[in-house]
Amino acid sequence: MLKSEILKRLYKDYTKKFINKIILSVLFSVLVAISTSSIAWLLDPAIKKLFIEKDRSLILIIPFLIIIAFTTKGFSLYLAKSTMISVGEEIKKKLQVNMVHSLIKTDTQIIDKKHSGKFISNLTYDVNQITSLLSNAILTLFKDTLTLIGLLSVMFLQNWKLALASIIMIPLAGISSKILGKRVRKVTTEAQEKSGYLTTYLVELFKNHKLIKIFQRENYENERAEHHLSELKNKNKKIAIVFVRMSPVMETLTGIMIAILIFYSAILISKNELDINNFFSFLAAMMLAYQPVRALSTLNMVYNQGISAASRIIPIIDQKNSIKDLPASRPLKISKGEIKFENLNFSYEINEGKTLKSINLEFLGGKMTSLVGHSGSGKSTILNLIPRFYDAQSGNITIDNQSIYETNLSTLRHNISLVTQETTLFDDTIMKNIKYAKENASDEEVYEAAKLSHCEEFINKLPNGYQTLIGENGVRLSGGEKQRISIARAMMKKSPIVLLDEATSSLDSETESKIQNALKILTKNKTTIVIAHRLSTILNSNNIYVIDNGNVVESGTHEILLKKSDLYKNFYEKQIQK
């Protein structure tokens, strides 16, 4: 996107809504400009009347007016800044909400391609840069521009010749700012990348802390952490240095201008073209103008930082999903729950080989069908295609003779429950984790699901029962307990189709028995597709498909496959039987 397009988009979607508050802040900025300018102007009558003419009639009035000017400036500045802080935080929230909403709805394939840590960096680092542009930069633009105009007016009022000589500093500062602004945008982009790498690393560090300890890799991880932090430090340091490069430029320009001012003023005073009171008022206005000129000179760098960040955020917010409802999509109506794959081809990337190759499958309604095969054969992909986490490149999937691509996603996913191999739980209470499948469920429904999934016995032993916080991904629970909560959650949905990827981890016989009983209740009279790893599951299946390298090579019951399929027999003896 072009810079102008980005600015229009930011104004339309984020700034326009708060235009009244921005105008209010501008009005306070006008008061800041007037009060600042009046401080410089008041030095003229103060010196002339109080010190030169020794007029005692103004001895109280002028000091009182100076107090009023400073007080007005202080309160106006506070109100202008606090108003824009409020605007900035509102804009930040809206940006983050829009980004999170987009990420929640976005295709699974897009999420898979980028580490979560980089999205987190976009959500924090980049959003802060945009917020700074849309709040701090706007305030600086109006406040300091108006103040500078007011002070220049005082300078021209006191002596137009000196004023013309002084304003040469403004274009010189602007040229320097433009040159440094280009550098800031480049370094800001690099800093965001390093911030993304650091966040990614930290996510993995906390996730794998046990692994680090058992393999005694603390020193190695310390070195990696130091590397990532050093990289980010160097980039942030570059940004800060680019910003402070304006200091020597501004100080030098100010020194030159004051020297010229004194030299030229001395000439004018000697010719009686300038009075001493005018000189001091002019000097005060010029010195007060230093701050707004300096602030405005860094504005281009803040602008480039914000534009650079927006160029990364807006594409995430605007992300178009390929998996979506067709205009003529209709609700899915379940009768038997029969699922068919018809000559289906799928690959995760177009330029990669096919993961599934012209497969045809039939899953009988209300029955259990197992998928078996070696790791990477395509079993999980089959499960992921049914709720449309991914879409096939060709072929069709039907449920009761209705193409899932022609039904709306909401009703499709409403009719499917999923229990994954790696149990996913939220850092919340057990009650809320089970209710996640049905937000409006009563506590009694949760208790019933917990009882049927054999969760009740261990939940009741916990100090806070169902209100126990289980930690990140259920870290405070055992593997078997987490699996049973995930089954209870699936029971809450009461959907006619169940997709189950059995956990490969070994459990003690008692826990194994409880999980199998819970699964029997979950899958009773439901269309169940299970990636089987346990003999008990295979024996309970009405049909078994053997998947190998993206192809369906055999199908049948356990007994039939043992007789006719060497691949199944080999798989059974090496992986299932053990």
Mean pLDDT: 86
How large is the radius of gyration?
A: 35 Å
Q: Characterize the largest beta sheet: strand count, sense, and whether it forms a barrel.
A: 6 strands, mixed
> How widely separated are the two ends?
58 Å
CATH fold topology of the largest domain:
ABC transporter transmembrane region fold
The structural class is alpha/beta
Task: State the helicity in percent bands.
Answer: 55-70%
Runs in which pLDDT lies below 50 for 5 or more consecutive residues are none
Salient structural properties:
alpha/beta, elongated, 4-stranded antiparallel β-sheet, 578 residues, Rossmann fold, ABC transporter transmembrane region fold, 65% helix, 21 helices
